[in-house]
Amino acid sequence: MDSNIEQPEKPVISKGIDGFFKDIYNIFLFLIRIFKEAFKGPVEVREVIRQCYQVGYKSLALITMTGFITGLVFTKQSRPSLSEFGATSWLPSLISIAVIRALAPLVTALITAGKVGSGIGAELASMRVTEQIDAMEVSAINPFKFLVVTRVMATTISIPILVAYTGLVGMLGSFLDIHLNEQTSFTSFFQEAFKNIYFLDFITTGIKAVVFGFTIGVVSCYQGYNASQGTQGVGKAANTSVVVSMFLIFLEEVFIVQIANSIR
Amino acid sequence: MNEKVIDIHNLYKSFGSNHVLRGIDIDVHKGENVVVLGRSGTGKSVLIKIIAGLLQPDSGTVNVLGQEVDKLDSVALRELRLKVGFCFQHGALYDSMTVGENLAFPLKRNTPNIKHEQVKRMVSVVLEAVGLAKTIDQMPSELSGGQRKRIGIARTLILRPDIMLYDEPTAGLDPITCTEINNLINEVQRRFHTSSIIITHDLACAKQTGDKIVVMKEGKFVKQGNFEEVFSTQDDLIKEFYDYNFIQ
Ligand SMILES: Nc1ncnc2c1ncn2[C@@H]1O[C@H](COP(=O)(O)OP(=O)(O)OP(=O)(O)O)[C@@H](O)[C@H]1O
Ligand SMILES: [Mg+2]
């Protein structure tokens, strides 16, 4: 059944280790259920769009600012070392490699994990605690499909779009600084910038973005949907969503970069 | 009053070592209001959550409208849930939606091709029935506790259930609002021809709404009958309850 029932049993190894394995098992079941329900019956298109809008709306301002400043500051910090070799003309391609390969997906994922992940965790947890999820269930509505599947779809769709946006804004920040210092024109900046970017870079960044989006959605929905009773369950769900998402994002980053480099 | 709509036999439920229900038997006949009285933590909410299929029983039979709730697959369970309304202790209104959207939501989800005008008409009928027509555009956070419970009842009524399950409909409300809610429960019974289980620890509520009263203690029913039968006894347990309610 859907109500989370905690049954105190005798631990097999120790309480902590048992709990850890039980968590992994439960997350596995949760994942299977997401795929099963996503492909069963019609997609909740309107709700997915609404959630996508929420993801974008919540994080756009922060992402714009962070992306722009990251590009700008990164350029400023790199200039002295490059100018020692008289190689400031390499700045655009250096920055584009850094932004597109690494910074854009990572910065976007970490910010959305903080803003959106905690939001989803807290929202679903408070719906669980105030019995709104049970209320859906008893009025013959499938809360899992309506709440969880739509949110996971929304983060998986909209975070890649945000990553592309962060990349663009970061490059603009960098362009501003380079334009002011080296008087490079807009077109020659972007020509330089994309000289050393390959198709594989876009693919890897795209895959990362999708994986990060999916991770944030699944982790925060899992934490919220299975929140324990009481108001502190809400805070805990929000908090754990962020911590676990960020941890997994770093792991996935390392993993995907390893694979990409072995192909290159 | 002959057909049984709910028939529970020898029901057990525990959470780990916490044995909450220990052999419950109850029947509800068509058109009847059954009140379950009991102190906090005796498992009243667990009982009706089992009836609504939110929790699984450990053993015993739970028969609702001729079907064994715990043995239904998800499709059949959903069908049955359309006929069983559940009013939560704190209303459980969807707090991201207005009152009107709260009421329309279950209707739209369960009848995908329903016309907009029809939804509007049915929403206003149930809002009228609970006497809160003017709150239609308010958010749940702007309502009082009593209003929230009434909207919760309206949201349940909109699916036209045969059975209503009320979880502490009057808890935490002032006596006048309690009476209003009790009258509402009786009116729902008359107007929508529902059979109900009303969970409460409030004797006034039990007296005003109950055709039959059962008293629950430590996961068992210790007494049942109509109000006079249950409370004419010298049984310590019942008297304790009575005193406690009047001291309050
Ligand atoms: N999902 C659950 N998991 C574990 N234990 C539970 C769960 N639901 C209820 N319990 C336990 O069952 C017991 C009875 O709970 P229940 O909510 O039915 O009480 P109640 O009679 O409705 O009390 P109240 O009048 O306070 O609402 C409590 O001891 C509670 O801890
Ligand atoms: Mg209760």
Write the layout of secondary structure elements.
The complex is a heterodimer of chains A (264) and B (248).
Chain A: H1 15-38, H2 45-84, H3 91-129, H4 132-138, H5 143-182, H6 186-193, H7 199-225, H8 231-263
Helix pairs in contact in A: 1-5, 2-3, 2-5, 3-5, 3-6, 3-7, 3-8, 5-7, 7-8
Chain B: E1 4-15, E2 18-29, E3 33-38, H1 44-51, E4 59-64, E5 67-68, H2 74-81, E6 84-87, H3 99-110, H4 116-129, H5 145-157, E7 163-167, H6 175-192, E8 195-200, H7 203-209, E9 212-217, E10 220-225, H8 227-231, H9 236-247
Helix pairs in contact in B: 3-4, 3-5, 4-5, 6-7
Adenosine-5'-triphosphate sits between chains B (15, 18, 20, 38, 40-46, 201) and A (3, 5-6).
Radius of gyration of chain A: 22 Å
Ends of chain B: how far apart?
35 Å
Tell me which oligomeric state these chains represent.
heterodimer
Summed up, the helix count of chain B is: 9
GO molecular function (chain B): ATP binding; ATP hydrolysis activity
Keywords (chain B): ATP-binding, Nucleotide-binding, Transport
Protein name (chain B): Phospholipid/cholesterol/gamma-HCH transport system ATP-binding protein
Organism (chain B): Chitinophaga filiformis (Myxococcus filiformis)
Describe the overall structure.
The complex is a heterodimer of chains A (264) and B (248). Chain A contains eight helices and no strands. Chain A has one domain. Chain A is mainly α and 264 residues long. In chain A, 83% of the residues lie in helices and 0% in strands. Chain B is of the alpha/beta class. Chain B has a single domain, classed as 3-Layer(aba) Sandwich (Rossmann fold). Chain B contains nine helices and ten strands. In chain B, the strands form two sheets. A six-stranded mixed beta sheet of chain B has the order 6-7-8-3-9-10, sandwiched between helices. Chain B has a four-stranded antiparallel beta sheet with strand order 2-1-4-5, with helices on one face. In chain B, strand 1 and strand 2 form a beta hairpin. In chain B, helix 4 packs across helix 5. The model of chain B has no long low-confidence stretch (mean pLDDT 87). Bound molecules: adenosine-5'-triphosphate and magnesium ion. Adenosine-5'-triphosphate sits at the interface of chains B and A. Chain A: Pfam families: MlaE. Chain A: InterPro entries: Permease_MalE. Chain A: GO terms for molecular function: phospholipid transporter activity. Chain A: It comes from Chitinophaga filiformis. Chain A: Keywords: Membrane, Transmembrane, Transmembrane helix. Chain B: It holds the Pfam family ABC_tran.
